[in-house]
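ARCHIVE CARD
CATEGORY: sequence design from structure
SOURCE FIELD: tokenized fold
FIELD CONTENT:
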């Protein structure tokens, strides 16, 4: 099976996307086909031995839409995407202004002679008076309507083509309604000479024109707002610079020509062209657009830099490690596109309704018209009902309700360094009631650090200098922590022992300045007869807190101990508090002993602590919680958590720890900040609230609007809805849905 994405053009409503899904699913070998109306992307899974990409494209084109492979479209059009979208908006605006101008004049001509409440008629040259020159009056309206029909020609071409393919859409509804009003008015125009007073009042040119204008206004506002919803992807795509400077030659070359191992020069103010490692120079780098980290990040030799980040002050020489589709930026874009392209389960009901919506509306319009005709109403009345029902129905609102909210929600998440894999994950996350936090690298920093120094009958500096000297020759992570601490406190680390011996499981023995130095655990020192009793109480206390006390002795005399631990992140306690405020049950998961685990749990305020768990047992712990009825999010660094991340309803990798995280996690937090977990949950809840509001509005609008257009109010003595007001209401409904989704983009996480 092969999965590909295609850019689909020519879609205007949910019925359009349903049509594309319907025709492609009928192809042999197609397992799945989903079309996102908002992103205009089709994701299709098919057996390449039974169907080819060319056949897929041909099938879509036969249905009246355009299709091109998403990857090919990106490669060909990324630089021009924004310009093309703006040009299309300008065209729509020009056509809207033109249609609006002619429609206003048409309204003046047609309605100005028939003002209610005894108001005087608006001035009009006598040659066009409906009373003295009715034929001229009708022909003038016909001439004013033609430019409006031309500006709205896509409604007719697209609508009738979809109708001929037996896949009617919103354009079909508008086209049928406007065409009926126009054709009826043309017939009345030719009959005026027979009986002017009988037919001059049966002209509905203004209905045909104004409906097209108002629907075009709605589509223009919708398109403009939709451009804003795509802002996250557009902004990310524009982060990668077009060119890079090769350090060796100084030549400026296209970024896409860079290869792994190339060294590039990044000047102050320039963007890093690709992922790499700093080989020379120091600077601050702004990674805000990629990770959500608002503060500049210091970079020195050996630091990793992300393509698309901005070099702020110093000159950097960067050795390229990833290019093209393998860069962090490309993977983020792919992640966000996948999220926006996949449908959430909540949208399935709306999609089913949208699939049968247009044929149902046409049937309702015909039935309503027939009922009023049987009731004895004149043809003009029947036509008005028929047109109003067609025009007021809005499949767009249904089709846009879910994808627009998901697009804005995932885009908002991306701006904050929260990458969500799909709309389905976004929906599931809002129902999470239990968050399991892996301790190492998630709650703690994942890097051992010196926490306490306790000298015994010597100066603190003497203990630290001795420890740094002997540990400098060890590759153990705990030794590295002591060396780093000593360097940070003024010890250059130049002093080295004359000889040393590693003692497995205990520590090491070294000769320093001709004296024997021991560094290791209690067992090692006791083996050599060193009395450690003066520090035993402190050592036991530290061990109970999950720290590792290391003893040091020189020439048989105790020098002291240095305690090392994986410190808790500064934000962990606040993050857990925020989760608890959201009603989340927090669980700390660790391989530490019970006492150490409880201590860490108390520091951060976890509701439950599960200790002494081996890495391969983590998935089992998640399963146990699920069997108790919990909806679980597992948060880890993605390195040894893949099975647990997969087992949980939502797997969340923090700190974008590894390539495995991008592949196995449902949510990737680019920053190493546990508070982003609660932000992700809040984002999910806000997005689901937005979707429910949109769906409620869309269903209510159509449920109430269609009966009113069919004459329900008139049946009980109320007014009959004009097609013009029906068109305005339809336009307003889809604009409201998109506008409501856009509000989400300004939410505070």
């Amino acid at each position: 099976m092969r999965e590909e994405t295609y850019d689909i053009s020519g879609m205007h409503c949910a019925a359009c996307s349903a049509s594309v899904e319907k025709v492609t699913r009928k192809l042999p070998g197609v397992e799945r086909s989903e079309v996102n109306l908002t992103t205009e992307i089709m994701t299709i899974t098919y057996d390449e031995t039974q169907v080819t990409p060319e056949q897929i494209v041909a099938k879509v084109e036969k249905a009246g839409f355009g299709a091109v492979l998403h990857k090919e479209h990106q490669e060909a059009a990324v630089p021009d995407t924004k310009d093309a979208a703006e040009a299309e908006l300008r065209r729509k605006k020009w056509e809207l202004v033109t249609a609006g101008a002619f429609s206003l004049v048409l309204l003046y001509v047609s309605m100005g002679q028939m003002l209610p409440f005894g108001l005087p008629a608006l001035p009009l040259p006598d040659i066009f008076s409906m009373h003295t020159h009715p034929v001229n009056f009708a022909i003038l309206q016909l001439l004013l309507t033609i430019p409006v029909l031309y500006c709205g020609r896509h409604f007719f071409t697209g609508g009738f083509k979809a109708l001929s393919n037996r896949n009617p859409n919103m354009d079909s509804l508008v086209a049928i309604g406007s065409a009926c009003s126009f054709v009826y008015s043309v017939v009345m125009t030719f009959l005026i000479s027979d009986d002017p007073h009988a037919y001059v009042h049966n002209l509905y040119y203004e209905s045909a024109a104004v409906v097209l204008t108002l629907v075009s206004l709605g589509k223009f506002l919708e398109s403009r707002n939709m451009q804003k919803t795509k802002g996250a992807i557009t902004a990310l795509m524009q982060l990668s610079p077009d060119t890079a400077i090769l350090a060796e030659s100084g030549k400026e070359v296209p970024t896409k020509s860079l290869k792994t191992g190339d060294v590039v020069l990044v000047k102050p103010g320039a963007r890093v062209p690709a992922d790499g490692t700093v080989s020379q120079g120091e600077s601050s780098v702004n990674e805000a657009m990629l990770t959500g980290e608002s503060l500049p990040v210091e970079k020195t030799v050996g630091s990793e830099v992300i393509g698309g980040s901005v070099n702020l002050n110093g000159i950097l020489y960067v050795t390229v490690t990833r290019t093209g589709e393998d860069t962090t930026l490309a993977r983020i874009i792919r992640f966000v596109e996948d999220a926006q392209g996949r449908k959430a389960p909540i949208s399935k009901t709306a999609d089913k309704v949208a699939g049968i919506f247009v044929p149902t509306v046409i049937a309702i319009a015909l039935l309503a018209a027939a009922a009023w005709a049987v009731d004895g109403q004149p043809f003009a009345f029947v036509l008005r009902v028929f047109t109003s029902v067609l025009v007021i129905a809005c499949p767009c609102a249904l089709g846009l309700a879910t994808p627009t909210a998901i697009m804005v929600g995932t885009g908002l998440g991306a701006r904050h360094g929260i990458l969500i894999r799909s709309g389905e994950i976004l929906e599931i996350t809002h129902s999470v009631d239990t968050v399991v936090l892996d301790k190492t690298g998630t709650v703690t920093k994942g890097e051992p650090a010196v926490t306490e120094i306790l000298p015994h009958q010597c100066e603190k500096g003497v203990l630290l200098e001795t420890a740094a000297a002997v540990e400098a020759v060890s590759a153990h992570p705990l030794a590295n922590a002591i060396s780093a601490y000593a360097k940070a406190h003024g010890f250059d680390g130049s002093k080295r022992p004359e000889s040393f011996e590693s003692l497995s499981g205990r520590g090491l023995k070294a000769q320093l300045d001709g004296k024997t130095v021991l560094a290791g655990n209690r067992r090692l020192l006791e083996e050599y007869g060193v009395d450690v009793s003066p520090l035993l109480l402190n050592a036991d206390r530290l061990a109970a807190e999950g720290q590792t006390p290391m003893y040091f002795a020189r020439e048989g005399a105790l020098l002291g101990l240095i305690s090392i631990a994986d410190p808790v992140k500064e934000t962990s306690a606040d993050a857990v508090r925020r989760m608890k405020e959201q009603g989340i049950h927090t669980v700390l998961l660790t391989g530490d002993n019970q006492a150490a685990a409880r201590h860490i749990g108390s520091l951060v305020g976890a509701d439950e602590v599960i200790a002494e768990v081996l890495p391969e047992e983590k998935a089992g712990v998640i399963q146990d919680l699920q069997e108790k009825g919990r909806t679980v999010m597992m948060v880890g660094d993605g390195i040894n958590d893949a099975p647990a991340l997969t087992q949980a309803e939502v797997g969340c990798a923090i700190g974008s720890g590894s390539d495995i995280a991008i592949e196995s996690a449902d949510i990737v937090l680019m920053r190493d900040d546990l508070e982003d977990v609660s932000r992700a949950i809040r984002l999910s809840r806000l997005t689901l609230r937005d979707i429910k509001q949109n769906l409620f509005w869309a269903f209510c609008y159509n449920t109430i609007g269609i009966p009113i257009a069919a004459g329900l109010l008139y049946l009980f003595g109320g007014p009959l809805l004009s097609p013009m007001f029906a068109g305005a209401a339809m336009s307003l409904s889809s604009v409201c849905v998109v506008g409501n989704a856009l509000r989400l983009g300004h939410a505070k996480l």
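CARD ANNOTATION: Residues 2-77 form a domain with the Alpha-Beta Plaits fold (CATH 3.30.70.100). The first helix runs from residue 14 to 25.
SHELF: design records, drawer C
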